[in-house]
């Protein structure tokens, strides 16, 4: 082999060696790039899959919550529609009946209490004298328009009980001019009491009565401007005197 041939051979080897090195580098770089792309692809796919799963989970949660709301409300509506109206109606009716009964009982107790209070006013006082009724003094004894008003007027509702002011015997019970109806009782001391404008009569002539006994119901009969009792007292069966003073003499204060 000549020197020229040796140089060519040597140069050819150097070119081959220098050309092979960049190729390997490019292959390695390509491999790394491919690996990077593959890794990035995997990471992107995983991220996309995670995001999709998260969205699906969020949607499922919303649907589940919506379903929970529907489940929590629907049974209540069905339960009310199917079961509660009848039971609730019965309960309401029962409560209404009980409330009405309690109201009636309360009203009765109030009436009883009022009657007991009225009884205090007509209870027997020292000397065997009681008030004739429970009412408001609307007209006293005395002259009115030139005419004597020989008694007192006590106003209350029609039917308010009227009582005998002392023990005695009924001497009149029925119609009377100006009074519509009246009752007169002659007492053991000779006094006569008069009860006028009465609506009902509970005694008969000749009947013995005691102080505080109900003898009539208040009315608005005869010459009357409203329900009331016109009461007179005639000591010893003589002229009428002021009932207010007469009651005071027996320890009772009227009006």
Automatic annotation (TrEMBL):
What residue stretches are annotated with the M23ase beta-sheet core domain? Answer: 149-243
What residue spans carry the Basic residues bias annotation?
11-23
Q: Which domain of life is it from?
A: Bacteria
Q: Which organism is it from?
A: Corynebacterium uropygiale
UniProt cross-references to PANTHER family, sorted A to Z = MUREIN HYDROLASE ACTIVATOR ENVC, PEPTIDASE-RELATED
Q: What is this protein called?
A: M23 family metallopeptidase
Ranges where the record places region Disordered:
1-23
**Gene Ontology MF terms in the entry:** metalloendopeptidase activity
Pfam families recorded: Peptidase_M23
């Amino acid at each position: 082999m000549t020197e020229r041939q040796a140089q060519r051979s040597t140069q050819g080897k150097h070119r081959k060696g220098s050309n092979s090195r960049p190729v390997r580098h490019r292959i390695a770089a390509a491999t790394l790039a491919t690996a990077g792309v593959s890794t990035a692809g995997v990471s992107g796919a995983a991220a996309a899959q995670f995001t999709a799963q998260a969205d699906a989970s969020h949607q499922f949660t919303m649907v589940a919550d919506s379903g929970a709301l529907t489940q929590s409300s629907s049974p209540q509506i069905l339960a009310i529609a199917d079961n509660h109206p009848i039971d609730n109606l019965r309960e309401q009716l029962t409560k209404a009946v009980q409330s009405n009964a309690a109201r009636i009982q309360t009203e009765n107790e109030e009436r009883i209490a009022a009657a007991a209070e009225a009884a205090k006013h007509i209870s027997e006082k020292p000397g065997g004298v009681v008030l004739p009724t429970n009412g408001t003094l609307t007209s006293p004894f005395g002259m009115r328009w030139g005419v004597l008003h020989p008694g007192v007027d006590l106003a209350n509702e029609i039917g308010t009980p009227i009582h005998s002011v002392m023990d005695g015997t009924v001497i009149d019970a029925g119609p009377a001019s100006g009074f519509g109806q009246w009752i007169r009782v002659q007492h053991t001391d000779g006094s006569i009491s008069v009860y006028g404008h009465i609506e009902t009569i509970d005694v008969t002539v000749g009947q013995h009565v005691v102080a505080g006994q109900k003898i009539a119901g208040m009315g608005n009969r005869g010459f009357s401007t409203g329900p009331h009792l016109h009461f007179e007292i005639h000591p010893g069966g003589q002229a009428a005197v002021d009932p207010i003073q007469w009651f005071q003499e027996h320890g009772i204060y009227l009006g």
